[in-house]
Amino acid sequence: MPSRLIVSRELAELLKLLAHPDRLRMIEELRPGEKDVSSIAEALMLPATRVSQHLAMLRAHRLVEERRDGRNHFYRLRHPHLAAWIVDALQFVDIRNRLEEAEAIDNARALWSDAAPNPSH
pLDDT tens, 59-106? Predict the structure, then answer.
């Protein structure tokens, strides 16, 4: 039983980390492979400083890896299947909100599902 308690606490911590819309969008943005902070910020229409703060949290929890090239910082998912897991979770949102937000959910699923992970990382 203690191991189940430990695992459930770890999973709860992961879910807390993922419980921010910007971080979920960043994970999906990194699904195809490595990107720099500016590219992520532009794609998500967020300030680069905000993106950097979220990426620092994701890095601290070992969900993303960082590579530096001069002044540029590049990030990629340590476990690309995390993005697929998030897409799979959309079915639960779908069930709750089907009538109200069906089109938005379908659009997100299509967009996020089309971006295949980069196997070279």
Answer: 999 999 999 999 999 999 999 999 999 988 887 776 555 656 677 777
Q: Within its chain, how far is the Cα of 51 from the centroid?
A: 12
Provide the residue range defining the domain that includes 76.
Answer: 2-114
Confirm whether 121 is domain-assigned: no
**3-class secondary structure, 66:** strand
Kindly report the CATH number assigned to the domain that includes residue 36. 1.10.10.10
Instruction: Return the DSSP state at 93.
Output: H
Tokens standing for residue 32:
């195809």
Sign of the dihedral through C-alpha 34, 37, 38, 42: positive
| 120 assigned to some structural domain | no
Please report, for residues 38, 42, 69, 117, the alpha-carbon distance to residue 73 in angstroms, rounded to integers and kept in the order given: 9, 15, 6, 20
